[in-house]
Amino acid sequence: MKKDITFKELKDSGYQERTINEEMQANLLTKIKSKKDVFAGLWGYEDSVIPQLKKAILAGHHINLLGLRGQAKTKIARSMVDLLDEYMPIVKGSEINDSPFNPISIYSRKALEEHGDDTPISWVHRSNRFFEKLATPDVNVSDLIGDIDPIKAATLKLPYSDERVLHYGMIPRANRSIFVLNELPDLQARIQVSLFNILQEGDIQIRGFQLRMPLDIQFLFTANPEDYTNRGSIVTPLKDRIGSQIFTHYPKSIELAREITEQEARISDTDKANISVPDVAKDLLEQVSFEARNSEYVDIKSGVSARMSISGMETLIAAAKLRLIETDASKTSVRLLDFSSIVPSITGKIELVYEGEQEGAGEVARLLINNAILTEFEKRFPKIPKLEKEGIKTEYSDIIAWFDSNYLELNYTDSDVEFSKSLFSIKPLVSLVEKTYPELNKQDKDFCMELALWSLAISDKLDKSSNENAFKFDSLGLDKHFFESN
């Protein structure tokens, strides 16, 4: 926290006044020249969104970030605070961050007239120069621009014609700052109109007051393409005043999606130490989101947020943590069984088309998980043939044959040793994984064995049944009422 100084001390310090655009441009160029990461944590945008952001800032443009939900639009906006100077001087007591070199409010102009070089100057940290508003249908002009304050008029015994009775809205208070308006299409058209002059000419009008207030603001807007047709739209003259429109997108690879989930998922250090997540499980979780974005049952116009994978990871950890508590164990690993726990994390984050509504959200979620399992399995192992030719063995013939005289029960509450022992009892399955991936660690091998069993069941080579606590695998056509009789 910097100490207050006088206007004379500020001038003597050599401080040079800059607009917010000049400030952001200078700090951006400094970071680029010093090879520093300008927008840290924005995975997958290095060759698309980030270069466009840099150019928009250097052009001094207001920016509209257009993309489906869960594409880090708000995160991008908040990261721009790092391009501001650490501290900014203002006339002490100013409601709208008045610069002492160029005051625009009556309060600051009078303070400088009365005190001159002795005018007190305070400092605003860059963290306090970020203003954010969610555009909802109930937002009005008074909220954004301002209104006459009758209580202030009565207290100060001033007529309504005096500028001092004005109550400034969020936008004037964001002078010399970044102002983010989220979900712009949700803002009523007549309210969007009130932004025209602010963006272009710097004028604001409050209840008949025509004030020339050259506000210095970096505007960022966010919008979802779905909003243009379902709820509202951005009026054309307002779009025309926004210098750059930048399209965001979902991660294009599993690797990038994993980085985002690892960065954003809220997992305690204790849980990280006690619960391991196999690499195959991490890939599978992200593949569920990729399957959803391409599913005929899911509305692609609505999008599938990256928050689905983030919530899914948190739920997987919670499922494993519950097992630790119930079994009084100290460590465990995420299992494929645990993926049934992420169904609630999926159903709340997908919008279904009509066919999906017929199936039901829960069934669609389980279908997405099964599709992801097959996709991940086929990346790692030979494809399971739909038909087996008589007398010709496949990589899976011995595994399927094992179940002709055996069955396998996998319980959520099995200890890791018991769980692994059950899987390793299927020698052909162990041989398949060891032969294909001898270098994998123990947890990944166990998970791959589960992956193979699930894939064989999904491909109708084995039967799979379940209850609240366990899954049972056996041969097709055998007794399927195991859980009813036990």
Written overview of the protein:
The protein is elongated. The C terminus is likely disordered. 44% of the residues lie in helices and 14% in strands. It folds into 3 domains: 243 residues, P-loop containing nucleotide triphosphate hydrolases (Rossmann fold), CATH 3.40.50; 130 residues, Helicase, Ruva Protein, domain 3; 103 residues. Helix 15 crosses helix 16. The chain is α/β, with parallel strands linked by helices and 486 residues long. The strands form 6 sheets. It has a 5-stranded parallel beta sheet with strand order 5-8-11-2-12, covered by helices on one side. A 3-stranded antiparallel beta sheet has the order 1-4-3.
Question: What is the topology?
Answer:
Layout: E1 5-6, H1 7-12, H2 20-33, H3 49-58, E2 63-66, H4 73-79, E3 87-91, H5 106-115, E4 120-125, E5 130-134, H6 141-144, E6 146-148, H7 150-156, E7 166-168, H8 170-173, E8 177-182, H9 189-193, H10 196-200, E9 203-206, E10 209-212, E11 217-223, H11 227-230, H12 236-241, E12 244-247, H13 254-264, H14 269-274, E13 275-276, H15 279-293, H16 307-327, E14 332-333, H17 343-347, H18 354-359, H19 361-380, H20 397-402, E15 408-411, H21 416-424, H22 427-436, H23 442-458, E16 463-466, E17 470-474, H24 482-485
Parallel strand pairs: 2-11, 2-12, 5-8, 8-11, 13-14
Antiparallel strand pairs: 1-4, 3-4, 6-7, 9-10, 15-17, 16-17
Helix pairs in contact: 13-15, 13-16, 15-16, 15-19, 19-23, 22-23
